[in-house]
Design a protein that fits this description.
about 15% strand; alpha+beta; Ribosomal Protein S5, domain 2; four-stranded mixed sheet; 4 helices; about 150 residues
Length: about 150
């Protein structure tokens, strides 16, 4: 009988506190959700991608969406870009802003970008999005002056 190569991934051994994270529960899936997020936010730019952040109408936890249009290249290149982006996001799910929808539009440069640099940029965007979400929440929660 063989033992697993990495006990943390299989739930055996002392490293069971490490859990495998997945984007399955935090992904934007419906076209209407994307459209609502686009309408409720403004476009922001970073070095290799654009991103949109919108507060959710009905808080359901953080959600993230990826888009890769045909302008990025053939299907196999778009799929590779999305796989790289999903992996960078998966490693930092804890940084997603609560009760907000985040949509990332990568540029073609993501394909050639070193993964550590891509991951650092995703972390920077998630940190900016979290700070912006906190500002949005604070401005919505502050009492309006009575006139």
């Amino acid at each position: 009988m063989s033992t697993p190569a990495n006990p943390a991934l299989h739930g055996d051994g002392p490293a069971t506190k490490v859990r495998c994270q997945s984007l399955a529960g935090v992904r934007l899936r419906r076209h209407a959700d994307y459209q609502r997020a686009y309408a409720a936010s403004r476009k922001r730019q970073s070095a290799s991608m654009s991103w949109f952040l919108a507060a959710q109408a009905e808080p359901a936890g953080p959600r993230v969406g990826l888009t890769a249009g045909k302008v990025l290249g053939p299907a196999h290149e778009r799929n590779r870009i999305k796989r790289r982006m999903r992996e960078a996001l998966r490693r930092h799910l804890d940084l997603l802003p609560e009760d907000c929808d985040l949509i990332l539009h990568p540029r073609r440069a993501v394909l050639a970008l070193e993964f550590t640099k891509l991951e650092a940029e995703v972390v920077r965007i998630l940190s900016q999005a979290k700070a912006e979400a906190a500002r949005m929440t604070q401005s919505n929660a502050s009492p309006k002056p009575v006139v």
